[in-house]
Amino acid sequence: MFAAEYPSSIVPASETKGEFHFQCVWSDSLTDVSPTTSVLSTLACGLLTLFLSTVLWRRYYESCRDSSSNLPLPRGSFGYPLVGETIHFIVEGMTQFVKNRRRKEGINKTHLLGSPMVTVDSDQRIQQLVSKEPHALVSSLPTSTRVIFGENGISVVTGKEHASMKKSMKQAFTPVRLSDYLPIVQKCIRRHIVSWIEENTGNKLLGFKVCEKLVCDLILETVVGCGRDQDPDGKVRDAFVVCNENLFCVPLAIPGTAFYKVKQARQVVVDFVKKHLATADSSSKDFVTILDVLLAHQRKPEGTSLANGKDEGQDDVLDRSDQLSDIQLIDNAVSLMIAGLDTVTSSFCSILSLLGKHPDKLAALRQELESQDLLNNDLDDDLTYELIQSLPYVQAINKEVLRFFPPVGGLLRVSKKTLEFEDFQIPANWRVQYSVRGVHEVTKAFDDKQEFLPERWLDPKLEERLRTEFPCGYAPFGIGSRACLGKDLALLEMSVFVIEVARLTDWSLLNPNAKQVFLPIEKPFDNLPMTVSKRK
Ligand code: HEM
Question: Which InterPro entries does its entry note (predicted)?
Answer without folding.
Answer: Cyt_P450, Cyt_P450_CS, Cyt_P450_E_grp-IV, Cyt_P450_sf
